[in-house]
Amino acid sequence: MANTLPSAASSTLRPAVLAAALACALQAQATPVALPAYNVDINQSSVSGLSSGGFMAVQLHVAFSSTFKAGAGIVAGGPFYCAQGSVTNATGPCMAATATSKPPTSSLISTTNSWASQGLIDPTSNLTNSKVYLYSGTIDSTVKQLVMNEAETYYKNYVNSANVFYKKDMASEHAMVTDYFGSSCSVKGSPYINNCNFDLAGEILKWIYGPLNAKNTGTLGGTFIEYNQTEFIASPTTHGMAATGWAYVPASCAANGQCKVHVVVHGCQQDPTKIQDKYYRNTGYNKWADTNNIIVLYPQTAPSSTGNPNGCWDWWGYDDANYAKKSGRQMAAIKAMVDRVASGYSALPAPTGVAVSGVTDTSVSLQWSSVSGAAGYNVYRGGTKVNGSTVTGTTYTDSGLSSGSSYTYTIRGVTSQGATGVESAPVNATTTGNPPPLAVPAGLAVTGQTATTVSLSWNAASGATGYHVYRNGVKVNATPTGGTTFTDSGLTASTSYSYAVTSFAAGRESALSSPVSATTSSGFVCTTTTSSNYAHVQAGRAVNSGGYALALGSNQNMGLNNTFYTTTLAQTSAGYYIIGNCP
Predict the structure, then answer these.
(1) Is 51 known to be catalytic?
(2) What is the 3-state secondary structure of 342-379?
(3) Does the pTM of the predicted model rise above 0.85?
(4) What is the pLDDT of residues 371-381, one digit of tens each?
């Protein structure tokens, strides 16, 4: 991480030998296991990473946005596909950016959109409601803050701005920031974990998941698991990954409680051969995971003599030309790890016995049977949750409703970890009393007319399922029109009409809207004739008056009535001509 890319082979040969020996010693300490399956809701998956892991976290978040829906934390990384397969781009604008040499964000957005349309990455619409936490130290000398500024621009093209948080005001060097472990904040050097009195891991998790239980500041209650990565990628060390990875599993998750999973992607020179267990034990994630039912997955890289001596993640294509796509080897391997962890998911079953126990003019009371394992319930009206806090019993009264109105309800169980279960079958209820009057359509306007038609438009009215159109006080559409436009046909030319609109729903109709007037056009098609004045008079388009030709109707003087004067006449209506062309 002193460099997110490989250094010269000559400077890494001896460390590589030592690293290999250390790796063997570490592996001898414990026997790796197959990565277990847990009761994990994959819809609550997230990812974060530092440096090369920051770039990798962006790749995972964007390419697998349907998996990492909850969000991502990016520390000293950059926008998606920043290097574009080039180590020169990686070391240049994607790390040592300047005002004139920055990541080409607009081009990267275009590539993202193109890949998504081809199915090479997941649809970008999955990113809209995701939560993104960005961090860049003001004195980071490896990945300049200008690069992270472009990452913010990139993400805000897809993610709601309110869901993107960017912290860039702390004087920290290139490192993972903690509030209890590591070098001083301004140091750049192994293990590239700096104590800046700031709990970055906690801030990332709280931004992604919302309010969390206080972290465990004592002895952790969960278990560290070393798992076999060869299940997920063939010959891992050939492709820049270690034979084993690590996971922290809280006791509640090991006991089949419903949990979330957060993937943490370390940076270069931070795999166990370089810094032993410091990254997966001392970056702060486990303290929060332990009290908030979050499994933390720490996939691991491995140094290699070809292209990756520093154990970086593939974010510029040292191993795979498709490194940033779903098909990328390292990408697919981590996705498969998440799928394995979440394969034991068991959602709470749907509540049964949902019934309406009472109604008033303004309220509906519901009851249902309890669900084993549920700590409470959420109530949904028309698909929208209506209870503020979790309902601890099996009854609920929804109030503040409209009289004489119909509503549809469903119920979901909620675990003690806040995960919701399967939705119940819907139940319908109608409040007593007379329904409120329907809203009157507003904004009625004439949008066009011909000799036989008038076109209208208006604004949608709340609660309306359709609309009736009235001409001169008489309804003209036999059944309600579902849209907010209408064309009245079969009218008489050059005639004025008055229109109004009503809203309609469940046999009820509103009052008439404010009226508008429209006049159909005449229907006459103007034509022109160019001829001598004498011919115009003979054809009846003009009359002779004292030797002069006058246009019929307008009486415009065309000149002498003979064959030597030529005039163009336009007939604008029956028996009416003007000199010149049609208006």
Answers:
(1) yes
(2) HHHCCCCCCCCCCEEEEECCCCEEEECCCCCCCCEEEE
(3) no
(4) 988 999 999 99
